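assembly run, all chains below
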Amino acid sequence: MVPLSWYLILAAALFAVGIFGVLARRNAIAILMGIELMLNAVNLNLLAFWRYLWSDNLTGVVFVIMVLAVAAAEVAVGLALIISIYRRRSTVVAEEIDLLKW
Amino acid sequence: MTLAQLIFLAAAAVTLVAAIMVVTAPRLIHAGLWLILSLAGIAVLFILLDNGFLAVVQVAIYIDAIAILIIIAVMLTRAVMSDADRQINRMGLAAAFASLILLAGLLAMVLQVPAASPAPLVEAEVNLDALGRALVDVDGFILPFEVASVLLVAALVGAILVAMAPARGD
Amino acid sequence: MSDPFVIVGQFIKELLIGLGLEAALTAVLLRIVGAAVLGGLVGAAAILTIWAERKLLARIQDRIGPNRVGPYGLLQSFADVLKLITKEFLIPRGADRYVFIMAPLVVVAGVIGMWAVMPLAPGLVGTEINVGVLYVIAIGAIGTLGIMMAGLSSNNKYALLGAFRTVAQMLSYTVPMLLTLLIPVMLAGSMGMLTIVEAQSSAWFILLAPLAAIIFFISSLAELGRTPFDLQEAESEIVAGFHIEYSGMGFGMFMMAEFVHAFTISALFSVIFLGGWQGPGVEAFPLLGLFYFILKTALIYFVVIWLRGTFPRLRIDQMNAFNWKFITPLALVVFMVTAILDKLAVQADFNRTAVHLGSNAIIVLGTLFILRAHAASQRRRKEVADRPQIQHSEAAGD
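ok done. output:
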C-alpha cells in the first residue's frame, strides 16, 4: 500500500510548482494555470486525508466537489476578465495591466 | 514494492514533470497541453485513492471543460504576446526562491503527520449513494451544495456579461 | 453454466495458469488481452460500417455505391485502408510536430475508450463501474481535445477555424446530452451501465422517456458532427475542417474515429434507451443477447445514415439557436417533470409507464403550443415592422 506521506509530499511539491507559476509568469492565462495546479494539489491532499484518516466520513469528498465547483466558476470568470481586458487594452501581460497603480 | 506503489510513482512523476512544464514552457499552448497531462495524472491518483467517481469527475470537469476553455482563451489572445517574448517576469528568481522556501516549510510540516494505514472502505456503490444523499441532506451538506449552485449560476451570468463584446457607444 | 463467455474466459485462464503463470498476473494479462480484442473488434466493425454507410447512402441517392472490390463491394473499405496505410504521413512545415502526431491518436483513444463499459451481452462487459454513464461522457469528450490539438498544431487557418467550430458545437451540445442522460440514470437509480440495462427488463426506457430519447439522439448527432450538424467539415466554407493537413493514416484515423463514434453512439442509445441485450429468450441463451444488441445498434445506425442522406446542412447561427433556445430548455423541463413525477408515481403506486408517457405527451403539446404562439407573434411583429416603412416611402414619393 502507498504510504500517506507520499501523497502529501507530491501535493506539497505540486503546490510549490503552482505558486511559482502564479508568481513568475507574465501572461495572465499562465497565472490561471498555476492556480489550477494549486487547487489540484489541495484536492489531492483532501482526498488522501479522507482515504487514510477519515474514510467513514464524507466531508473530505464533499470538500473536493466544492473545490471543483469553485475552480470551474473561477476559470470561467477569470478567462472572461482576461478576454475583456484583451479587448479593451489589447494586452494579457499581468504587469502591463496597471491602470490602478502609480 | 507493490503494484500500487509502482503505479503511484509513475503517475506522480508524470504529474510533477507535467506541472513543471506548465510553469516553464515557453509556448503557452504547450503549457495548456501539459496542464491537461498533469490533471490526468491527478485523476489516476484519485483512482489509487479508491475514489473512481471523483476521478471521472476530474476528467469530465478539468480536462473536458476547464482545460479546453483555457486553450481557447490562449488561442483568442495569442496575437498580443508572441511566443518569443519573455514568459517569466523579472522577479522570476525571487519567485523560485519563495516557492522553494514554501516547499521546505510544507515538507517539514507534512513529515510530522503520523503514518496511517487506510481503513477498510465500504462498497463503492454504497459510498456513492451516501455521498448523493449527504449532498441534499438537511443534516449534511445541503447549504454548501446550494451555495455552490448559486455560485455557478453567478459565474455563468457574470462571465457572459464581462466577456460580452462592448456596446457600440462604449 | 450455459454462459459461453464465462466458459471461454475460464478456459483461457486455466490454460495460462497451466503454463505456470501466477494467478494475479493472469488476471492482469486477461484484462489486457480482453481490451485489445474489444478494441480490435470495434475497429473491424468500423470498417464494415463504412461499407454499409457508403452502400446505403448510395441507394438513398439513387446510385449503386462501391461494387468493384469483392462481392457487393464488401472489400472496398479494406482496399481503402490498405491505400491509406501505404501513403506518406506528411507533417507540414511550421506544424507543431508532436502535438500534430498525437492528435489522431487521442481522438481514436477517446472513442474506443467508450466501449470499456458497454454491456454487450449478459456476462459480457469490459468492466462494470458504478459511474459508467459519467465515464462515457468524460472519455467521449477527450475526442474534443484531440480535435483541438489537430487544429492548433496544423499551422493552417482552415484547420483552426474548423477546430473552433467543432469544439464550440461539441461543448454546447454536451449540455442537453448530459441532461437527457440523467433521466435514464434517474429511472434506473444507478449510473452503472449494467444496472441500467437490467432495469429495462420490464419496459424499455424509450417508452418511459420518449422525449429524452429524441433529445439525446439529436444532441448526439450534433456531437458526432453528422448531417444536419456537419458544419465542421463544410467544404464550401472551411475546405475540410480540422483534418485538412492530415494525410495517409493520420487522416485515416480521423475517418475511423468518426465512423466508430457514430457506431458507438448508436450502441450507447440502444443500451440506454432500447434495453441493450434485453429481448425474448436471453436468459436461456446469452449469445442471443449479443445478437439483440447488434440488431438494435444497427437499427439506430441506419437512422443516422438515413438522416445523413436526407437533410441539408444547418447554418451555424441556426445550430446554436436550436441548441440554446430550444433543446436545452426543453431538456431542462423534461428532466424536472420526470424527476418529480417519478417520485410521486412510486409513492402513490401509479403505473410508471403511463405516468411518464402522459407527462411526455403533455410536454410535447405544450411545446407545440408555445412554438405556435411564438411564430404567430413573430409574424405579427414582422407585419408591424413592414407597414410603416411602406407608408414612409409613399410619403417620400409625394
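Residues 123-170 of chain B form one domain.

Chain B is about 70% helix and 0% strand.

not gonna interpret more than that til we talk
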